[in-house]
Amino acid sequence: MKLNTSVDKKQRARQLADLLHQTGEDHHIAFKATDGADPDWSIWYADHLREKGIETLLDAKLLKSDLIYLLVLADKKQMSEAPGSRWEQFYADFFVNRYIHS
Fold first, then answer.
1. Among 14, 54, 61, 70, which is most buried by a count of CB atoms within 10 Å?
2. Spatial separation of the C-alpha atoms in residues 53 and 71, rounded to whole Å
3. What is the value of pTM for the model shown?
4. Could you tell me if 56 and 94 are in contact, meaning their C-beta atoms sit under 8 angstroms apart?
């Protein structure tokens, strides 16, 4: 049974990484005039991710403010723990490990 949960976590992390990647693409398009620059990116991401089903993917109810906080936290952790890594996968692992339990 643990194997199934582990596979489920891996599948969800992959799906979430894909969702985060698409969100990044969508954000860049939305902020094309500024070449994607947006100091409040986490607010836009939180709205977009909630609209695209992050709560269903993580099987969790997420307040917008909590999601904004967690996005910023994931960003800071990625910069300090794994600079240069694929951010989408780092964030996905961060969220899945936080919300999907064995």
1. 54
2. 15
3. 0.88
4. no
